[in-house]
Amino acid sequence: MATKHFTPGLFAFLRELEANNEKTWWDANKDRYQRAVRDPALDFITDFGVRLHKLSPHFVADARTSGGSLMRPYRDTRFSNDKTPYKTNVGIQFRHEAGKDIHAPGYYLHLEPGACFAGVGLWHPETDVARTLRQAINDDTDRWAAATKVDEFTKTWSIDQDEDEMLKRVPPGLDPDHPHANDLRMKSFIAGANLTQKQVTSAGFDEELAAMFARASRFTGFLCDALSLPF
Asked: Which of 71, 108, 116, 129 could bridge across to 91 with cysteines, CB 3.0–4.6 Å?
């Protein structure tokens, strides 16, 4: 029988948190956070770990309450003008086993009222990592196209090419007339897919998400191989 992990109560909590983003409200509702958000997310991570291992044994589903796949609910406000203390979304990351030491590909699930999505890839990698990935795209055109330009991928995933997140031009040393020149300008190497709250709160969402990630396997594999990481 398909398992249902998340309920509308998760999104109700996040909406109320957005309207009451202060420590007093949080302290009064922390038990509710644990019941509606944290515990279902940790159960999801545990169950998804089995599916994740089938995709690749090198990605980690860590159901610890701190330091694991579930991202902390507390915002880092030190360098932000927005001093609200709590995140009004839930972030779940499944990092590559090498991700603790270097920038490495990962899988991501973002839960937010009206703005749920899944992601795969690397966000803003270090300069040398980005350079390595661009070189791989430049040199292995056919494999990159087979990973990212085919229906199996594009019917589910979209690679982020927001001009604000792109280099102004193809970097020196790479082919400015490359058939995928825009991909050589990317600062991040991420594919995203929007989700609905109905999907997230449906039984079997873990199976659906795993199938989505599987359709990005050539993309993830390309990134891993470019960085000499196992996939």
From this structure: 71
